[in-house]
Amino acid sequence: MARVVVDVMPKPEILDPQGKAVTGALGRLGYSGLTVRQGKRFEVEVDGDITDERLAEVRDAAEKLFANTVIETFDVRVDED
């Protein structure tokens, strides 16, 4: 069984309160120079081979269900592990 990973992130111009909170916590813990943007990761198990058509299906699902494309971007990739 193959795996496709969909990473969803807020668009750069969108405020990220969770990422800002984590960035602040890192500073308080003594970590400097680190800025965090928090997103989501979806792992999709695919029966059979990963074809261009199957990847297109996952992209379509990501656009319709996994990401709010008004405020988020997404990236679809095959997990090689």
Automatic annotation (TrEMBL):
Organism classification: Bacteria, Bacillati, Actinomycetota, Actinomycetes, Propionibacteriales
Keywords: ATP-binding, Cytoplasm, Ligase, Nucleotide-binding, Purine biosynthesis
Top-tier EC class: ligase
Presence of the UniProt keyword Mitochondrion in the record: no
Predominant subcellular localization, coarse grouping: cytoplasm
Organism: Microlunatus aurantiacus
InterPro entries associated with the record: PurS (IPR003850), PurS-like_sf (IPR036604)
Pathway connected to this protein: Purine metabolism; IMP biosynthesis via de novo pathway; 5-amino-1-(5-phospho-D-ribosyl)imidazole from N(2)-formyl-N(1)-(5-phospho-D-ribosyl)glycinamide: step 1/2
Function: Part of the phosphoribosylformylglycinamidine synthase complex involved in the purines biosynthetic pathway. Catalyzes the ATP-dependent conversion of formylglycinamide ribonucleotide (FGAR) and glutamine to yield formylglycinamidine ribonucleotide (FGAM) and glutamate. The FGAM synthase complex is composed of three subunits. PurQ produces an ammonia molecule by converting glutamine to glutamate. PurL transfers the ammonia molecule to FGAR to form FGAM in an ATP-dependent manner.
Protein name (database record): Phosphoribosylformylglycinamidine synthase subunit PurS
